[in-house]
Design goal:
Order of helices and strands: EEHHEHEEHHE
Radius of gyration: 18 Å
Helix content: 40-55%
Distance between the termini: 29 Å
Number of domains: 1
Bound molecules: heme C
Length: 216
C-alpha cells in the first residue's frame, strides 16, 4: 500500500493505492485514516465512507453490462461483428450507467483503443502506479485508488474520484493480445484507426474503471 501526494499541472492531488479484496482486511480500516488527513489538508472535504462501496458497485455494473454486450455479440456474430457492437455500444453503456447514477463512470488505460478513453492527468498517474504495483506482483484485481480532486473548474467544482484496475483475461487477448487474427485486426483498424490497445498478455494490466462524483 502506498500513500503519496503528487504535484500535477492543476494543483496537488492525494491518492492512495490499496488492496481491498478482503472484507476483513485491516487495510479497509487503515486506508480511510491515511486518506482523511491528506484530503482534509487540501480541500477541507472528505468523501462519505459509503462512496467507495458505491463507486465499486458502479464499476461492477458497467463491467457486467459491457460483458453481456460483448458475449452476446461474440456468440451471435463472432469477434469481427463484436468490434462493431463495441464501437457502437461501449460509450453508450458507460453514458447510461453515468446518467442513471448521477456519477461519472468510464473506462480508461495507458494504451487506448478509443481516443475517447484517453486518461486525464490523475488517471494517468494512477494507471502508472497500478502498473508498478502489478510489476511488483500485486494481484491486479485488488488494485484501487481514490482521491479528492482539488480542481475547481468554473461552476463544476471538485470531484471525489475512484479507480479500479482491470486485468487482461484470456478471452480479452482475442482483441487486445499480440496474435490477433488478420481479418479481425483489419476490422479493428477500420473502426479505430488510432488503436494502441494490442499486445496485452493474459494477466497483465489492461486498464481501469474510473468513477467520480461532484462534491457538494
Ligand atoms: C471483440 C473484441 C474485444 C474483446 C474480446 C475485448 N475487447 Fe476491450 N475493447 C474492444 C473495443 C472495440 C474497444 C473500444 C470500445 C470503445 O469504443 O470505447 C475496447 C476497449 C476496451 C477498454 C477501454 C480502453 C480502450 O482501450 O479504449 C478496456 C479497458 C477494455 N477494452 C478491456 C477489455 C477486457 C478486460 C476484455 C476481456 C474481458 C476485453 N476488453 C475484450 C474490443 C474488445
Amino acid at each position: 500500500m502506498h500513500a503519496r501526494v503528487y504535484p500535477t499541472g492543476y494543483g496537488t492531488l492525494s491518492f492512495l493505492v490499496k488492496r481491498d479484496r478482503s472484507v476483513f482486511s485491516p487495510l479497509k480500516f487503515v486506508a480511510p485514516l491515511l486518506l482523511a488527513p491528506l484530503a482534509m489538508a487540501e480541500t477541507g472535504t472528505v468523501a462519505a465512507a459509503d462512496d467507495t462501496a458505491r463507486a465499486n458497485a458502479l464499476t461492477q455494473q458497467l463491467g457486467a453490462r459491457l460483458k453481456t454486450a460483448l458475449e452476446t455479440a461474440m456468440q451471435q456474430g463472432g469477434p469481427i461483428a463484436a468490434i462493431t457492437v463495441c464501437r457502437d455500444q461501449a460509450q453508450v453503456i458507460a453514458a447510461d450507467v453515468s446518467r442513471d447514477s448521477g456519477w461519472t463512470v468510464r473506462r480508461t488505460a495507458l494504451r487506448v483503443r478509443n481516443p475517447a478513453n484517453t486518461p486525464d492527468a490523475w488517471e494517468r498517474q494512477v494507471l502508472a502506479s497500478f502498473a508498478t504495483a502489478a510489476a511488483q506482483g500485486t494481484d491486479i484485481g485488488t488494485l484501487t485508488a481514490q482521491a479528492t480532486d482539488s480542481v475547481t473548474s468554473g461552476s463544476e467544482g471538485r470531484r471525489w474520484r475512484y479507480m479500479k484496475a482491470i486485468p487482461t483475461g484470456q478471452v480479452c487477448t482475442v482483441c487486445h493480445g499480440s496474435n490477433i487474427d488478420p481479418a479481425l485486426a483489419t476490422a479493428i483498424k477500420t473502426s479505430y484507426p488510432e488503436d494502441q490497445a494490442t499486445g496485452f498478455a493474459p494477466g497483465s494490466l489492461r486498464g481501469a474503471f474510473s468513477v467520480s462524483r461532484l462534491l457538494q
